[in-house]
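Fold it.
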Amino acid sequence: MQKDAQNNLYHVIKDYVPKAVFTKKNRARTWLYGYNEKYDFVVISKSGQVGEIINVNGLAIGLPPIPKDAYKRSDKKEKQYWERDELPRELGRINSIFQWNEHPPQFKSKWVDYIEAEFDKREFGFWFYNNGKPTYITGSHYMYLQWTSIDVGYPDFREANRIFFIYWEACKADKRCFGLDYLKIRRSGFSFMGSSECINTGTLVRDSRVGILSKTGADAKKMFTDKVVPIANRLPFFFKPIQDGMDKPKTELAFRVPASKITKKNMYDEVDEELTGLDTTIDWKNTDDNSYDGEKLLLLVHDESGKWIKPNNIQNNWRVTKTCLRLGSKIIGKCMMGSTSNALSKGGDNFKKLFEDSNIANRNANGQTKSGLYSLFIPMEWNMEGFIDKYGMPVFRTPEKPVLGVDDEMITVGAIDYWEAEVESLKKDADALNEYYRQFPRTESHAFRDESQSSLFNLTKIYSQIDYNDSLIMEHHVTRGRFYWKNGQKDSEVIWTPDSRGRFKITWTPKKILTNKKIQKHGMYFPVNEHIGAFGCDSYDISGTVGGGGSNGALHGLTKFSMEEAPSNEFFLEYVARPQTAEIFFEEVLMACVFYSMPILVENNKPRLLYHFKNRGYRGFCMNRPDKHYNKLSKTEKELGGIPNTSEDVKQSHASAVESYIEKYVGIDLDATYRPIGEMGSMYFTRTLEDWARFDISSRTKYDASISSGLAIMANQKNLYLPEQKQSKINLNFATYNNKGILSELMR
């Protein structure tokens, strides 16, 4: 366990350079950007002057000096923090340099200073007062905070990311270094930071190439299409280069020329519209040991490098791709690599070895680490969502008074206290504990914990799917919303509407012609889309419990293979909630079934939901237990439907159904049995995935999502559970007669 006092990401080195030398070179502005061999530190200042020299991870880094005009949001200390400036409306209307050229000189004169200043911040970085302290961010960090649009709008300022970007700038400046190997916590924002750097680099240079790799080709493509391309498209015009091809390319961003700096001297110059030829490109490659082999790269962003699953090997890939970043002994490009780690047996061992080979304390005769990269680890408490205050600083320990967070929510618990409580609760579950360590490490050893082999389900597949989901802009895949009866009239038509406060999450809705379909037989309604899919539900009977506890109700919708225009074998609906009353839950479940016109399999130990369906005339929607013939059902089972949860056979069948589904449709299919090799599964409901990861067959009641999702699988595979009917021997007792004589006599 790390002590809190050890949680310093950096410290200032006093008198690192003799004062006389330091003062003389500052006065003459002769400090050069890059590695200073004489005094063994890396200068990231581009002004010829150096301010503080700090130590980050054992690397001495010279920062720019504090300017006299450092930006202050307010004269009051408590109101000084990072705040993004909106692009002036007049400039927001301009989409290209060509439109800029069409404006009159008066307009250009008005805005040229603003544009010049933005280019300066991009190049030299930016100083601002943060809670009374002058704070430096690099140009890359400024571009990330100010001009990088992400899934939640624009990024928050975090001290951990500030140090990350300073270290990254040092890696870029250091001629001995091939780049950064960043061991991170989950949801640190690295994918967006890497995407931002792709655009920042790719829009500044000529005749260069920027590449993207991830744990799978699908991940790399997703990073490119969901992150890199939107960031490029949303840049202000003065940073946006002339682009070839589509606005939303799938494989490559191609720029004719990089963005040119607009200054007072050149603001009236016009760009030649006849410029042709691709100077700079940004693209992605499939995950392979030989990705980018033989190609020259200025920047390689290597996401999720700790999650390469065999036969892919991150070490083998790096040995090849490293050559793309150098010409002979000269390093001409840099790699930004970052990841959490898989369990050692699932590819994490290769990443661990690469990380260890990147320790800057161990250099060869050329001054390089064994890998050429510089490793960096930032403990979870520095960068955990929900524990960052208004000034971007982490709240380590529970404060005496609530602290205002960067998300405008009050922080009442410290990150370390929260982490320790989670660890304590997981001590009896080795697999879950080790996984938590890997996702939220406080030490490097935590990050490389291996998993035991006692897990009921395949944790590697589950967590690879979770991590993949975390990399996505989920709004593009999952919609939150609610169902309601048209005009408030029950049993009429169910309407679906997106709603950020809704309790349903869906990934697919059928065509209008397939919704709200039902047939009536024997005085009850029946669904018509059973051939497309079915629902599973873990219900509850009591609206509330003492203390407000109680498990959630859960509902899952799952498709099967069909000839309809629907995804195959994919969960399309997730509902895990406990509304104010049980009746609300029952009605919401009913509406979902009616809208999709699919049957539902429910555990009948809590029968109120089944009674709700029956009383409303929807008994035909409630499936009977699939493991018994109808004539073997009890009176209650015939009346209501449903399946018991007490039978050991049912429990085993349920767990086996989930296990089989995970193996086939979750994570990466290495054998290409169910989808192309290396392609990630399409299970987008992370809540359910996490429930599967924790599922304990001996204590099923608290795993609501696992119960309902497993029932959905069983509902779609009901024929697998039907017992074989014994072949009964039928005696055909034909009468026989004695035909001797005049009359026949019946023989006995």
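The CA atoms of residues 506 and 573 lie 4 Å apart.
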